[in-house]
Amino acid sequence: MPLEVTAHAASGSVPKSWIIRLITNLTFWVLIAIIAAVVLGVQAPATAVKMEVIGKTFIDIIKLFIAPIIFLTIVLGISGMDSLKKVGRIGVKSLLYFEVVSTLSLAIGVGMALLLKPGHINREGLQMQSAAKYTSAAEKGFSWLEFFLSNLTLQVLLAAIIIGVALNYSRYRWQVIAFLGKISKIVFTALKYVMYLAPLGAFGGMAYTIGKFGLHTLVPLAKLMGTVYLTMIIFVVVILGSILRYYKMSIFKFLRYIREELLLVLGTSSSESALPSIMQKLEGIGCSKSVVGLVIPTGYSFNLDGTSIYLSMSVIFIAQLYDVHLGIMELLSIIGILMITSKGAAGVTGSGFIVLASTLTALHKIPVEGLAFLLGIDKFMSEARALTNIIGNGVATIVVAKSENEFTETPAS
């Protein structure tokens, strides 16, 4: 009798068949939901569009967990650390990493767009939509105050840091930590049950996208979409893969480990939908609670690798579409402007277009109305942006955790 079977017999348990393991796997049901949504979107677009409420409701429920999870994770992480200097060092190191990698992603986006020339296509056959609301919003300019006031994640992050630091000086520190620890367990248990609804969320989001915009809208701008997706794949595999390899980890093992979160993001087109569960997964792989709590929420506002690639490629695409020649200084200006404005492209629907409009306006050379060509396919490229963003933030967390000796090796890693 094989050793494995003997062990199961001794313990009184029966090994599950692959069918049982498959049908009880959440990833399987999310994938089935996405396939079903695509079929419904193609065969019955009108019905598929009505599924939007399902996707939105799921994301709204998940958003209810984001603030308490960020608050509890950061407060417990900081108040449980022995050195506040380490908290400051983790924060500075995270921001430095974000800036370096985000700038690299902008440069890669520009370089790939110049190499593959996605804008060298016939403009006459392209569908245009009005971009007036984005261009008018861009005229107001970017405000860091407005960015902060409209970003709940950053507000909760700041409040949690202040309270976490203050707790270190309180004589009731351990009583509060014990209480918040119990609350944290309750919140994460509730989240576990909500995540069983993930297939419904993915179905609603994908069905609406296919039904509303239709696969036929992809054909005229297939070259741009292909270039964006290819660039993001190269960025994840080569750049992020090389960073993880330096820290003795495999990008492919990491992607397999977070496959449920990736499928959820693919279905909902929102990296926020997977924020609470990716925080759990990163703790599960070995990152300390304090590093996860500080890096992930900050990264969702300041480390948008996928968005950076898309924004830089879109600027070059519009320039190529209108046969506008860009010199070295103008290309450097695009990267420099986007280094600042791209930080405001988080969390608000349509904010990416406002950033693009602001960038084009600042350059005074590329027609802003070129945004109208991108509106029809933007929804289909949001999946690539969101996927790259969440992978990038996961890698950033691992890098900071390992560099700070706040990483415990586990079988998952």
TrEMBL record:
It is a multi-pass membrane protein. InterPro entries: Na-dicarboxylate_symporter, Na-dicarboxylate_symporter_CS, Na:dicarbo_symporter_sf. This is Aerobic C4-dicarboxylate transport protein. PANTHER family: AEROBIC C4-DICARBOXYLATE TRANSPORT PROTEIN, PROTON/GLUTAMATE-ASPARTATE SYMPORTER. GO terms for cellular component: plasma membrane. It is found in: Cell membrane. Keywords: Cell membrane, Membrane, Symport, Transmembrane, Transmembrane helix, Transport. Pfam families: SDF (PF00375). One of its GO terms (molecular function) is fumarate transmembrane transporter activity. GO terms for biological process: L-aspartate transmembrane transport. The chain crosses the membrane at residues 26-44, 64-84, 96-116, 147-169, 190-208, 228-247. Gene3D superfamilies: Sodium:dicarboxylate symporter (1.10.3860.10).
